[in-house]
What does this fold into?
Amino acid sequence: MNVRTAFETPITRDLYYAVHKGIRLANARMLIALGQADPGDEAGLMEVLGRLSAHLEICLSHLTHENEKIHAVVESRVPGGAEHQGEDHDHHLAAFGELRRMAEEVAVAGDDRAAKLRRLYQRFAIFVADDLVHMHEEETELMPLIAANFSAEEIDGIEHAIVSNIPPAKMAGFGRFMLGAASRSERIAMVTGMRQAMPVEAFDGLFAAIMGEHWRFGDWERMEQVLC
It folds into this structure.
């Protein structure tokens, strides 16, 4: 497989980097959880299947944001520019449906539960592999195309259009894995920027949801303990 691993020109505003780091982390954690799930532990297995459902919902939200706020804008200015990524998204949608169906079969399975769980784990692993390649192509092919055809202000506008349409509860889910996947310096910069941009009440509410507890700004060690 041949993939691009470097940009020809620097990308100063990136719509993908932070959220894709988070999705990679969330995908990896979900894959591990499915692999460790015990078919004989009813409560534990149901918890993992619930996590899978929530994970697929987050993935669907991310895909929808990209389709509506990025791909549509790119296609209006560079016809065909996001066509390949759009095809990948169609495959992802089919995978979401298949994974949900397989998870439902595991939940109600009898003596064949272990075999069904194993197949679910293997199918999710294939989805993760496909998603890793897809995200890499968006970062190394589509983002440079966007940077070459849109101004910094327009890219900021695209990002704002995405973020402003995410409900608070779902924003907490995105924030949890994006901050967990970030380096310490990236994490501090992200949180500091949000604190400067958001009303105090909104910031405090969001981070209480992300952390699952009251969090004092600047306590980076506690944030890492909870999220990383």
Residues 1-7 have pLDDT under 50 and may be disordered. The chain is about 80% helix and 0% strand. Residues 113-149 form the longest helix (37 residues). The chain has two domains: 12-166, 167-228.
